[in-house]
Amino acid sequence: MDYFLTEQQTMTRDLAKKIADEKIKPVAAHYDETEEFAWPVMKILAESDLFGVYIPEQYGGLGGGILDMCLVTEELSRACGGIALGFAGTGLGAIPILLYGSEEQKKRFLPDIAKGKKLAAFCITEAGAGSDAGSIKTTARKDGDRYILNGTKQWITNAGEAEIYTVIALTDKAKGARGASAFIVEKGAKGLSFGKKEKKLGIRASATREVIFTDCEVPASNLISKEGMGFIVAMKTFDSSRPGVAAQAVGIAQGALDHAVEYARTRVQFGQPISGFQGIQHMLADMGTQVEAARALVYAAARMVDSGAKSVAKESAMAKLFASEVAMRVTTDAVQIFGGYGYMREYPVEKYMRDAKITQIYEGTSQVQRNVIAANMIKESLKRQSRD
Amino acid sequence: MIFPDKCAGCALCAAVCPFGAIRMAGPKAVIDPEKCTLCGACIAVCKFDAIELRKDTEQKKDLSRYKDVWVFCEQKKGVIQPVSFELLGEGAKLAKKLGVKLCAVVLGSGIEPRASELSARGVDRIYLVDNPALGVYQDDPYTEVLARLVEEYAPEILLCGATTIGRSLAARVAVKIKTGLTADCTGLDIDEKERLLLQTRPAFGGNIMATIITPNHRPQMATIRHKVMKEAEICETRAAEIIRKNYPETVMISRTKLLGVMAEIEETVNLTEADVVVAGGRGMGGPENFAMIKELAVVLNGAVGASRSAVDSDWIPYSHQVGQTGKTVCPKLYIACGISGQIQHLIGMQSSKIIVAINKDPDAPIFKAATYGIVGDALEIVPALIKEFRRVKNF
Amino acid sequence: MNIIVCIKQVPNTTEIRIDPVTNTLIRDGVESVINPFDTYAIEEAVRLKERLSGKVTALTMGPPQAEKALKEALSLGCDEAVLVSDRKFAGSDTWATSYTLAAAIRKIGAFDVVLCGKQASDGDTAQVGPGISVHLDIPQVAFVKKIEDVSVNAAKVERMTEEGYDIIETPLPCLLTVVKEINTPRLPSLKGLMRAKSAKIIRWTADDLEADPGSLGLDGSPTRVAKIFTPPPRKGGEILKGCAGDVSKKLVGLLKGVVI
Questions:
Q1: Residue to substitute from C71, C72, C186, C190, interface A, most A β-carbons within 10 A
Q2: Statement: residue C23 has pLDDT above 60
Q3: B45 with B78, same domain?
Q4: Chain A residue closest to C193 (CA)?
């Protein structure tokens, strides 16, 4: 399908695809097996300028937007959803600075991110605050020209590998969610440490750790926006980043689908390739249609974000919900088409199924997405009614 | 260049054009001048003489002063390299057809005793330049000396081995004396009527073969692939005439300076020289299993090769890689273990005399190239082969 | 440091297939790429520039569509690109090609190093690089696997040999042909791709080179192609069947005369 990409977007996608095919595909199984962080691939991505596709030119980027970020995430995820997170997780960590950072903060942090010199990470989740993000416990106490952070963030993508962390912490416990603020914490800050690397079902090439603040000192100039804006920063960040997770889901689904089609063409049973059987054909047709529908929704949502639309919460939640559900279904069906081989780790498709699952969970579970979608639908309806 | 009245529209030329420059426009063939490289393949194939190449404007030169077949005999550390004996074997045939002498050219330092041994290889005359500056190969003095010898004694044909030295040296000499050079030939013959050397070589990675001639320049120069021609037999009774030449120091100056010669110790048998190559690929499963490849190679006194995927996986160093981006080998026996046989690999080994392929996948392309194929797991077959070869050898 | 890289556009041999019926090359849809060996020369040139600063000029002789190869070279870090293209060059063998490229290099002007891939994947001659060095009368080292030191007027390099390698010092300017072992070429960068898209390619014809017309193209080429033919396709050999022990016995029996 033609999505009428600009010349630069086409170039971006093609380059990401080339890197995925030549540099990621051959090592995807290795990093899945060893659970190491794919630094050599990050270096290649950095040299290719892809880390800068969504960052404005004045900060050393290429001036594209969320759609550009989605194109890269999708192509990388087609080869490995885990390695792609090094890129996508950095995007998530950078978006708060892009959206709410001061000019000085943007100048200080974005060029290194654009060049791929530094990875970034976003820290909100805690042991007791998953879907209920409002119940975070990490605090930030003002002390002269600095803040002192205390608390532990959990399951943070890129933790330990990234240099730049955007952190949501409470500056005013009494106000609850309204007392939250967003900070930029640099690796090496006094009192910043990391927990052990988590062992995961999928996306095993990505680094997931606790980020621990023990009287961690952060300069006051690293406060993003104002005190009390933390939750708005977080929610607006997710509105922009959800198409990215959705793009990861589309990439994972497409990767599994490509394998399934090729396998169906070459696998012979009952004297003919199994692609000759209508049962398989219909499965492939449904998989292909779902993936394309998901992609169309993701690109549309990303374009809406890039257009500067005021409220994109509903649309980006829809994209994330739909694409992640599609990814789970399509990767499961791909394993089914491979049959017994699909279940074996020697073959590539079971990894896609394991990788797909997380897209239904992180950056808001499918259930939370539905909440967001429904809440926005009801709000819109109420608005219409009150206008009538 | 196509005469429409003669063209019968048979489309043979369009099929044979290596550059896709000919298409059929209705019933007649048309040449796309942007793509045509004037290679002449279409002319050879046209049954109706409907295609003509613009005739050379050059006058035919008098080439009669050029006589004899020369073989540049490469030496390393004072040892004449075996490829030279193959060239002498082939050169003798060419000299006989032309009714001229077979001459060896030897450049070196203190090399005379070894050079005179070439008498026994059927050589009529030996041109010898013995000078300390020629002890090891250096581009400048070697080029200068060989060019001067050629200009003075005017051979009709000059053959070099297609080795790293031969390919560098021949290319330089040919440009210097303005004559044609054909690289990496696998077949030579003589057009006796025209006294032309017919030089056949693979191109496009062995997918097509081309026969090249040098009609108006002498000597006709070619580098010849190692292990393709038969070595000249030893015949002790002959004695060759030796012509000793020397040149002033100005000729011997080298702008480059050789600081050291490093041997890579890992290999006991030189891959491109070996009569037997045992090669492993992706199907070996991991670096640890290359031990059995090495063992089989030792049993057969051969060298170890590898496919690109095995090298890219860091199972074995690049110096073992056989194929388009690695080495080209043509041993008497090539045993491919767990190698699927991608075209890039076949390019590097398909001229081996006997190819044995061991692979799990019966549809692997390697079986198309194989003399003998075994469908099965290399990890089981190779140990069985080692055992069997050992048993037979001990008899 | 001014570096000139000579490249050639070739058909992608990984895509070359033989038509089983006509036994000819299937060319449809075969894309043109930079000769794989030249990609190592480009990478080495860009690395030298990054190390020592300076300028890299990519040079090719070929049809107008060879511009694509030059654009790719620009996207990989070359600064300028020169396309030498003229009908008069058609039919060039390695003599005429090296003559023409040498003339173009003279016109480019001052340079310290000329880099070439060790050979092209379509012709496999490995003759053009050494030929250029003779035409330019500069020292050369062929089959270089490592460039160790480079100073203003000399370079220390390793030349691959059958047995290992030689360490050679050469004065500058010089010509080096490089082998695959020398580096791992980078992929293009997005900024490089965008720069290449808008970059202007310098185009020269035979007249621009002030070359001797008799040394160009077919007239300047001592060799002629007498015949081109496709080798008969291999039919595939005998398949040996049985358990590991049995097939080994059979095979060893068949090979007895060859290796034992």
A1: C190
A2: no
A3: no
A4: A11
Q: What is the pLDDT of residues A99-124, one digit of tens each?
A: 999 999 999 999 999 999 999 999 99
Provide φ and ψ at B346, rounded to 5°: -55, -40
Of A236, A191, A198, A239, give the one whose Cα is nearest residue A218: A191
Chains in contact with C, counting 3 or more C-beta pairs less than 8 Å apart as contact = A, B
Residue in B closest to C90 by C-alpha: B37
Same domain assignment for residues B81 and B26: no
Touching B (3+ Cβ pairs <8 A), the chains are C
Indicate the CATH number for domain A7-119: 1.10.540.10
Q: Does A16 touch chain C (CB under 8 A)?
A: no
Interface membership of A22 toward C (CB under 8 Å): yes
Domain total of chain B: 3
Q: Is A54 within 8 Å of A294 (Cβ atoms)?
A: no
- pLDDT single digits (tens) A284-333: 999 999 999 999 999 999 999 999 998 999 999 999 999 999 999 999 99
Separation between Cα atoms, residue C201 and residue C80, nearest integer Å: 7
Look at B172 and C130 and tell me if their CB atoms are within 8 Å: yes
Under the banding of pLDDT at 50, 70 and 90, the label for residue C246 is confident
Measured in whole angstroms, the distance separating CA B61 from the mean position of its chain's CA atoms is 29
Place of tokens 């069947």: C241
Please report, rounded to a whole number, the percentage of residues in chain B having pLDDT higher than 90: 51
* Mean pLDDT over the full length of chain B: 88
CATH code: domain of residue B39: 3.30.70.20
Report the chain B residue with the minimal C-alpha distance to residue C98: B175
What is the band of B39 on the pLDDT scale with cuts at 50, 70, 90?
Answer: confident
Helix (H, G, I), strand (E, B) or coil at C185: coil
Under an 8 A CB cutoff, do B355 and C237 touch? yes
Q: What is the per-residue DSSP string for A95-121?
A: HHHHHH--HHHHHHHHHHHHHTSS-EE
CATH code reported for the domain at A121-228: 2.40.110.10
CA distance C193 to chain A (A): 8
Contacts of B381 in chain C (CB under 8 A): 244, 247-248
pLDDT in tens, B22-36: 888 878 888 877 777
Q: 3-state class of C195 per DSSP?
A: helix
- Domain assignment present for B99: yes
Q: Residue B35's Cα: distance from chain center in Å?
A: 28
Give C-chain residues touching B380 at CB under 8 angstroms: 244
Q: Which residues of B touch C158 (CB under 8 A)?
A: 262
- Asked if B204 lies within 8 A of C16 by C-beta distance, the reply is yes
Q: Residue A347: which of A366, A331, A363, A370 has the closest Cα?
A: A331
Within 8 A of A62 by CB-CB distance, chain C residues are 190-191, 194
> Both B40 and B75 in a single domain?
no
Nearest C-alpha in A relative to C192: A48
User: How many Å apart are CA A66 and CA A91, to the nearest integer?
Assistant: 9
CATH number of the domain at C2-226, out of 1.10.230.10, 1.10.260.40, 3.20.10.10, 3.40.50.620? 3.40.50.620
3-state secondary structure of A161: coil
Given a cut of 70, whether residue B240 has pLDDT beyond it is: yes
Q: Which ranges in chain A are annotated with CATH 2.40.110.10?
A: 121-228
Whether the pLDDT of residue C228 is over 90: the answer is: no
Domain range list for chain C: 2-226
B–C interface: beta-carbon pairs under 8 A:
300
Q: Which chain C residues are Cβ-neighbours of B216 within 8 angstroms? A: 222
Closest chain A C-alpha to C179 CA, distance in angstroms: 21
Query: Pick the residue with more confidence: A169 or C254?
Result: A169
The reply to whether B231 and B326 lie within a common domain is no
The closest of B94, B89, B90, B86 to B68, measured between CA atoms, is: B94
**Predicted TM-score of the model (pTM):** 0.82
Q: Is A325 a catalytic residue?
A: no
Full residue range of the structural domain in which residue B356 is found? 276-394
pLDDT value at position B57? 46
Asked: is A231-381 a CATH 1.20.140.10 domain? The reply is yes
